[in-house]
């Protein structure tokens, strides 16, 4: 009887083991991303100012589908998004408590503040037509992977996933996150605008306009002194930018654009306080005038209750009487036919 050689069998087993080991290095146990993926780091800052750098790939991830709505109304998505829950990430610095908020800052300087409720998913959702549905029913994650790079764009990114591919406001979807800091809570507010169209601008939308780097109308900053001689630096959005939301000159893709022709024909811009106090400007004086703006910060802090949430300020105001506090509404009246 001839003896069988076991050498080829042993060699085959070794080769198979090498192949299996190689495959295991390339995928997770569920076929996901590599276990040796590049770290995705952000800096967390607790309420006492202590910093901690964390690698988001080290957290347990969840996956869900979602879309976001641009300020113009365009819907981006849906896409499948994966990343750790925002609350789990915040747990590394003691978590967020009721009465607190988080300030998220991107590497390009864009900033967005989320209240405790918003962190917990209490934000407005929309249908496919962009119409409001309900508040809540979503979960905030810090996405690091996506089935559509056009949606994730520059990870890590705040996203809101849930059942039924929820659609939420895009200004909450902060991308390319650099830091997340525990901050004092902020009050929600709303500015009413009317003219050829009507619009509402809430706190987060205004904050987005004031810090967005990809814009033709950058935020304004003005240093002055108060009645006690103390330095005050105001930050905000030009009045003409807010006027552009309701002056009937949106582009086909929905972007707001200031209606220069209408402003030159002439109309009146009214800025109205919560108590009804009103000042008026000629549209020609408002057009592209960055020296008249709505401030929401003074020395990098939200305006106090006596002045905020918005105050009309700037070096080009006609006089101090035009520095309206507690701005609640902007109207375009005496519009040309």
Q: Which descriptors apply to this entry?
A:
single chain; 337 residues; alpha+beta; Sulfite Oxidase, Chain A, domain 2; 2 domains; six-stranded mixed β-sheet; five-stranded mixed β-sheet; 8 helices; globular
The CATH H-level superfamily of the largest domain is: Oxidoreductase, molybdopterin-binding domain
Number of separate helices = 8
Judged by helices, strands and strand pairing, the structural class is alpha+beta
Q: Any idea of the CATH topology of the largest domain?
A: Sulfite Oxidase, Chain A, domain 2
Helix content: 10-25%
- Total beta strand runs: 23
Largest sheet: 6 strands, mixed
- From the spread of the alpha carbons, the general shape counts as globular
Strand portion, in percent? 35-45%
End-to-end Cα distance, whole Å, is 109 Å
Our count of domains comes out at: 2
Give average pLDDT, whole number: 87
At CATH's second level, what is the architecture of the largest domain?
Alpha-Beta Complex
Residue stretches low in confidence (pLDDT < 50, at least 5 long) are 1-36
What gyration radius follows from the Cα positions, in whole Å? 26 Å
How do the strands of the widest beta sheet line up side by side? Answer: 8-7-12-3-4-10
CATH class of the largest domain: Alpha Beta
Give a verbal description of the structure.
The protein is of the alpha+beta class. β3 (61-69) and β4 form a beta hairpin. It starts with 6 loop residues before the first helix and ends with a strand. The radius of gyration is 26 Å and the shape is globular. The strands form five sheets. The protein has a six-stranded mixed sheet. Strands 2-1-13-5-6 form a five-stranded mixed sheet. Strands 15-14-23-18-19 form a five-stranded mixed sheet. The chain contains eight helices and 23 strands. The chain has two domains: 41-184, Sulfite Oxidase, Chain A, domain 2 (Alpha-Beta Complex), CATH 3.90.420.10; 190-333, Oxidoreductase, molybdopterin-binding domain (Sulfite Oxidase, Chain A, domain 2, Alpha-Beta Complex).
């Amino acid at each position: 009887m001839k003896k069988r050689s076991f050498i080829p069998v042993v060699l085959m087993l070794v080769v198979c083991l090498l192949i299996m080991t190689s495959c295991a290095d390339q995928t997770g146990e569920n076929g996901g991303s590599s276990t040796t993926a590049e770290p995705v780091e952000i800096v967390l800052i607790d309420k006492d100012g202590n910093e901690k750098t964390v690698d988001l790939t080290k957290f347990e991830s969840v996956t869900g589908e979602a879309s976001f709505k641009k300020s113009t109304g365009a819907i981006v998505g849906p896409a499948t998004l994966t990343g750790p829950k925002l609350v789990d990430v915040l747990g590394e610095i003691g978590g967020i408590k009721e009465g607190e908020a988080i300030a998220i800052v991107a590497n390009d300087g864009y900033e967005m503040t989320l209240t405790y409720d918003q962190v917990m998913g209490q934000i407005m959702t929309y249908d496919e037509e962009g119409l409001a549905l309900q508040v809540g029913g979503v979960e905030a994650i810090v996405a690091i992977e996506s089935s559509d790079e056009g949606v994730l764009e520059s990870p890590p990114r705040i996203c809101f996933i849930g059942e039924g591919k929820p659609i939420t406001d895009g200004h909450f979807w902060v991308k390319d996150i650099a830091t997340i800091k525990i901050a004092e809570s902020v009050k929600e507010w709303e500015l009413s605008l009317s003219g050829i169209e009507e619009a509402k601008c809430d706190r987060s939308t205004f904050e987005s306009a004031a810090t967005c780097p990809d814009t033709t109308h950058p935020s304004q900053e003005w240093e002055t002194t108060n009645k006690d001689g103390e330095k005050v630096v105001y930050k905000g959005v030009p009045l003409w930018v807010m006027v552009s939301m309701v002056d009937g000159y949106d582009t086909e893709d929905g972007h707001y654009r200031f209606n220069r022709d209408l402003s030159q024909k002439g109309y009146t811009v009214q800025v109205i306080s919560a108590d009804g106090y009103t000042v008026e400007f000629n549209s020609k004086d408002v057009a592209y005038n960055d020296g008249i703006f709505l401030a929401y910060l003074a020395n990098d802090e939200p305006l106090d209750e006596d002045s905020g949430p918005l105050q009309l300020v700037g070096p080009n105001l006609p006089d101090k009487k035009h520095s309206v506090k507690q701005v609640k509404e902007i109207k375009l009246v005496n519009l040309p036919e």
